[in-house]
Prior knowledge:
Layout: H1 2-17, E1 39-44, H2 54-58, E2 64-70, E3 81-89, H3 98-102, E4 108-111, E5 125-126, H4 128-133, H5 144-148, H6 171-174, H7 185-195
Antiparallel strand pairs: 1-4, 2-3, 3-5
Amino acid sequence: MYGLAMAKGLMVTLKNLTKKPTTVQYPEERVKQHPRFRGEEFVWYEERCTGCASCAKYCPLGIIKIVTSPSETAPKQGDKYRLEVFDIEIQRCMFCGLCVEACPYDCLFMGSGFEQGKYSRKDMVLHVEDLRQADKHPSTFFRPQLEASGYDPRGGRPLNWREVGRESWRWHQQEKSGLRLEHSPVDTAGSQQESN
Ligand code: SF4
Ligand code: SF4
C-alpha cells in the first residue's frame, strides 16, 4: 500500500514535469499586464482638472480629499479652481474606479503600477505633488479611447494631457473651466510640437 501511494505521488510529479509553468520568477521576470489593470498610483492631468471634486464625492470610502481656492487666472463664476490639496489615501483604496468614472474631464485615470509597497500606512497617501510629478502611464480602464488606440501602459511612453481625452484637446482651449497650464512642462513641450 505504501509503495502504491509513492508511485501515485511520483506520477503526479512526472505529469507536471512536462507542463508549461504558470508562475514566473518575479522580479526578474514579469507576467504581461492587461492594459485595463487598475494599479496603485493614480494618473492625474492637472491641465484638465477643474477642481469640481466629483471624484471625491463619488468615492464610496471617502478617501479623496480636495481643497481648492479660486484661480486668479480664471476668477469668474463657473471657472476652474486651483488645487491646493488633492490627497488620495491609497492604503484604503479598493480600486473600484468610481472616482475615475465620475471625472467629467478625463483627467483622472487608474494607474498601472503595483510595486509601491511601504512600511508605514501614512507614507502611502498620495499628495498633489506626487500626482503632479508622477510619470503618466494611465490604465485604459474606463477609457475606451485609449484602449482603441492600442496603448500599453506598462510598455508604452508616458502620455500628456492632450492625448488622453475623449474630445480633442482644442476643445479645452475654448472651455473656460477645463484648462490649466501653469504647472505643465509637458504642456510647453506639447505646444512647441503643435506649433512646429
Ligand atoms: S478607486 Fe474607488 S476606493 Fe479608490 S479612490 Fe477611487 S473611488 Fe475611492
Ligand atoms: S480629477 Fe476630475 S472629478 Fe476630480 S476634481 Fe479634477 S475634474 Fe473634478
